[in-house]
Every structure is written in C-alpha cells, then in structure tokens.
Design brief:
The structure is a single chain. The chain is of the alpha/beta class. It has a seven-stranded parallel β-sheet with strand order 7-6-5-10-8-11-9, with helices on both faces. A four-stranded mixed β-sheet has the order 1-4-2-3. The chain contains twelve helices and eleven strands. The chain is globular and about 75 Å long. Helix 8 links the parallel strand 6 and strand 7. Helix 7 packs parallel to helix 12. The longest helix has 22 residues.
Amino acid sequence: MTLKKKPSSRKSLPHRKNNTKGPRSPAKPLAKRRANFRRSDSHKKPTRPAQELSSVRSDKKIATVTTTTKNSSALSRSDTANLVGYHPILSALDHGYTFKKLYIQKSLQSDKQEFLIKKCKALNIPFYFEERTVLDTLAHGTLHQGLVGELKKGPQIKPDLAKFLTTLQHRSDQATSYQSIIIIADHITDPRNLGALSRSAVFFGCDMIVLEEKHTAPLESTVHKTSAGASLLIPYHISPKLSQALSTLKAAGYTIIASTLSTHPAVLTLQQLLTQHSSHLAKIVLLIGSEAQGVRPHLKRNSDLHVKITAYHSAPVNSLNLSVATGILLYALRNAS
C-alpha cells in the first residue's frame, strides 16, 4: 500500500532572481578620488585650528572669573544705587541727593507715599506706579515698603586715600581741637552689619570708612536701608588690601587701635586706653573685625594698641553685636577729653 504525501500548508515561495553582481569596476586613480573628496567637503565651514580654539576657551574662562570677582566686591552696584524704604529715601532727599526716578507700589497707599509724591513734584523727580514684582526686582530682595528710588549718584567713593588725608590735615589745621577718626572694617560680609556700622560712624562724626575690595558686603540697597540712608553721608575708600591702607594711615600720623576679645595682658580696657594714651587720640584709626573671626592676625600685628570692652562680671555673654561695640568705642573715643 502506497502512502500519498499530504499537500504542504506552506505556500511555495516565488523563485528568487539571481541578484549576484557582476565583476567590480576597476578602482579609480588615487588623484581622482582625492579630488572627489575635496569637492564633497567644499560645502562645510572651515574649522579653527586646535590651538586657536584652546585660546578662545581660556579667554572665556578668564572672562567668567573676572565677572564673578567683580560682582563679589565692595564696588558692586556702588556707582549707582537703588534706595529702598521710606526713611532712607527721605534722608537722601533732605541731604541733597537727587533721584532719576521713584517707583511706588500700586496697591499700597499711605501718608508716607503721599508725602514723598509731593516732594518729588516739588523737586521735579519723575515717579511711577508699578506692580510689586517690579519693585522686588529693583530692590534685589530687600524689603522696600513699596518704595524704590533710583539715585543719580551712589555712595561717596574716594579712590585716593593719601589725597583725602591731606584734605583732612588742612581741616585739622584750621580747627583748634579737631579729632579725626577713621574706621577700617575688616571682612564685614553681612550688609546689615555694614549698614548699622555706617550709621554709627555718621552719628559720631567719623571721617571715612575703609573697606577691602574683596570679602566685603557690596554697598547696595540693604546697606543703605539698614543705615537709614546714612551710608550715603560718609566717604568710603575701597582698598585692594587693608594692610596697604594701614601703612598709608600710619605714615599720616594715625594711631591704629584694634578691637579684640582677647584677655592678653597687653590688651587695654577702655578706661586704660583713655587714661594712659590720651595724647595719642587726636588722629585715630579704629580697626573693627567681623563677628565670626574678629580682626585678622596680620592686621593686629600692624596695630599700635589693642582694646576690649569688658562685660559686666556676672553677664552670661562675653561679646556684643558689631555695630553696638563700634558705637560704644566711638562714644568713648569722642569723649576722651
């Protein structure tokens, strides 16, 4: 018995054509291939040499570093200033400062705003009503109370310290009992501390505040607001290094007095300073350090005297806020006679 094959369920595939290529054409000459390659790349933009690219990258890197350094210095935004808050703006107007324009928050209405609007009209200062977001941007995050004024001129910056000291010398020659006090603020990075210190310096009639170019709070809106506008009423000198400023002041006959918390026997109390060194207090530099670190060691070594404020014997704290300590020292020095 013969078995029949079952028909396959798979469909028969069509017969494939023979796709084999014929013999390869002979290779083109090398010179012709190079010419074709150059023509195919002619549409591309020429690339810079690697050396040129590396110099461009390094230039960009240097530019970035320079910008960062500039923005972190005490000179940032000090040429023109945005003054915020009622009292700083009013103080600036009362002392002859002029504004380019005054911005007022739309949703706020108060007697203080109305008073400033009348002053602006009398002084021909343009004023604009803006949304709060606009004022927030202009104030750089400082609380502005709905008022931001753009000054035509910022704080008083005296680049030539020696020339300024010559002017002070002429002033002291004309006055019989003139006491010159200059403050050096070492590494004051908190703008509120710098603003409060500036206010104390103006209150006690200091001639100047010396700051270091780096590691110092910028002279901007927070400083002006904390000082209630007093930061616009005193000259500043921005020094590359405070040691250079100390040398210039020493050469001009100033006595350098550094404040400290040290209990070293050579450190004077306020009473000892006023009684034992009264003849050296006609021209004074008061050196104030930050609350965290105090006066740096190399500046202490260049100081003539060291003084401390002694706490009450049972007081549970042994230090004061920077501006409070500065105020106590300035009061004592002004009443040295």
